[in-house]
Design a protein that fits this description.
It is a single chain. The chain is built from ten helices and twelve strands. The chain is α+β, with helices and mostly antiparallel strands. It folds into three domains: about 130 residues, no CATH class; about 80 residues, no CATH class; about 80 residues. The strands form three sheets. Strands 1-8-9-10-11-12 form a six-stranded antiparallel β-sheet. A three-stranded antiparallel β-sheet has the order 2-6-7. Strands 3-4-5 form a three-stranded antiparallel β-sheet. Strand 11 and strand 12 form a beta hairpin.
Length: about 325
Amino acid sequence: MEKTELTLEDVKKTIVTEDKKCKDITATFGDMEFLGEEGIKIKKSLYKLNAYSLSNLLYKLQIQRKTLDKFSESFQHTMINERLKQLGTDGCIARVKNDRLRVLVSPNYVKSDNIDIVNQLSTVDLIDEYFVKRFNLDDFSMKIDLVKNDGRRSVGIMTDGKLDEFEHGFSASNSEVGLYSLDLSSFLYRLICTNGAVAKDSIFSINQRHYGRNAQINIQDRFNLLKESSAKLFDKLGSLKDSPIENADNDFFESFFKELRKKNKSFYASKELREKVTNNYNIESQLTENNYYTLFNAITRTARDEQNVDKKFELESLAGTFLS
């Protein structure tokens, strides 16, 4: 579910409602029986598996999927159940929601639950100066975007005859099933006015991550760092317009993506992505000038149009890397 224009209290109510459908079951692997498409029995109760929870189960059992796929379905069941018996009394915690298994975690797993994160956010100094721009919650993750009230600013750049304006804020992302650790990011929304309405055109983020599940996270400290970084981003945006691009040809974009790869080793620019950014640069350059501000907007325009959430997040972070 995705909701917009909420308060943190609205967010809390939604999370509490969803939490009522969830529970943690302390069990051993010996308490489990794999039933294939039917799911898995945990202490005699049956829970359905999705692609993620099945992959998580195989990881816990140290069974490689490519090895499993070599055998018949009945033998796969036997292999998994034999492994469950071998692990026997080894303990785990099954995080379930209604009739679905979300994830299996170790007994010493340090939980980072959504409601705890939102409760901490509610106590941050000056949090009342922000409103919830976007809130998304599903079985795997939560994301909250908070934007500063009356925080709109311009960097003195015209696009298509209109003054480009931005508002800044930060996002909090969390995964209760261990897809990733708590992530706090600062961002800028680029605003475009059409018939009096203000719409989000593009977003980028600079990540402030905690490392290690045992790390104690001080959200107040992180929030202070993000406020400092947001203030500097406007200055950096303004400097991009003073950096012209003389010849935005194929060689330029090849060199540009190679440089981004050096800054972000996990980033890979596919041919399709390079073409999208190049095409969006050509669109943006018709509205303004040939400079690195235009290139920045080409990346964020590509992120805006991306339908895959993971790729969108990667592009948003990439734009932040480019700016920083």
